Q: What sequence folds into this?
């Protein structure tokens, strides 16, 4: 399995001894390359489902039309469908963001999207229930 576009950190919380895994993602812009990444990440999440896992980063995808705005913005339904299928099939919890609707802004002040996310396992939420 290739972990291209993913940086994985495994560690232990010193005070509690709890193990954790953080996978930082920088997804490609290409639809086919993203689909390959979703397959790889789905397998990674399934393989580590009993662990404290956080998969976070720039996914270069939005889930809905409401998560993207701008002058010349093109909403790609296929990319959104593939991304949503990845999320639905992998069962990660999509943490809400606080303070803003968007995570990326172009310098024009008009173009913006929510392409950055934090997905966590159920065990992560059990271990740290107040995470946002």
A:
């Amino acid at each position: 399995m290739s972990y291209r576009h993913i940086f994985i950190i495994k560690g232990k919380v010193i005070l509690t001894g709890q193990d954790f895994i953080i996978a930082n993602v920088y997804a490609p812009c290409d639809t086919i390359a993203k689909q390959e990444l979703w397959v790889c990440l789905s397998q990674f999440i399934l393989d580590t489902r009993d662990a404290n896992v956080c998969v976070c980063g720039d996914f270069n995808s939005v889930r809905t039309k409401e998560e993207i705005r701008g002058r010349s913005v093109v909403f790609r339904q296929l990319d959104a469908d593939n991304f949503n299928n990845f999320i639905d099939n992998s069962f990660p919890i999509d943490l809400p963001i606080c303070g803003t609707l968007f995570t990326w802004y172009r310098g024009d002040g008009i173009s913006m999207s929510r392409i950055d996310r934090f997905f966590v396992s159920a065990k992560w939420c059990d271990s740290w229930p107040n995470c946002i």
Remarks:
- The CA atoms of residues 45 and 90 lie 6 Å apart.
- The radius of gyration is 15 Å.
- The first strand starts at residue 6 and ends at 12.
- DSSP finds three helices and eight strands in the chain.
